[in-house]
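Q: Structure tokens for this one, please.
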Amino acid sequence: MLPFSIELKPGLPITEQVIFAVKKAVVGGQLKPGQPFPSVRVVSQELKINPNTAHKIVAALVAQGVLITTPAVGSVVAEHAAGDRAERAELLGADLERVVVEAKKLGLTLDEVSAGLAAHWKKLGRK
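A: Here is the predicted structure, written as tokens:
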């Protein structure tokens, strides 16, 4: 079982979707620094993807500093994988773009969208 959740969406590259899901799990605390990350084989089997694709995902996460790979140990979540506020905010980029596009299609103003966002924020108990 993978230590992060993902709902694969058609039309988006699977590598991007999985990398985003892993980063989100790190930022959200589902994956903690030092925690072992599944092997390429496990990722491939669990997601039913080609092992080469799973390898690309792990390699990209290592290159981005999210994972550290050690011979004979495997991959673990890096100590500073959660990144700074700007990096964490960047994870929302695609979702925010979708909201803006939909809001514009519906003819909503920025104030109306902001008010809707604030209402959802409060409903979820955030400050």
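A few notes: The chain has two domains: 14-84, 92-123. The chain has a mean pLDDT of 87.
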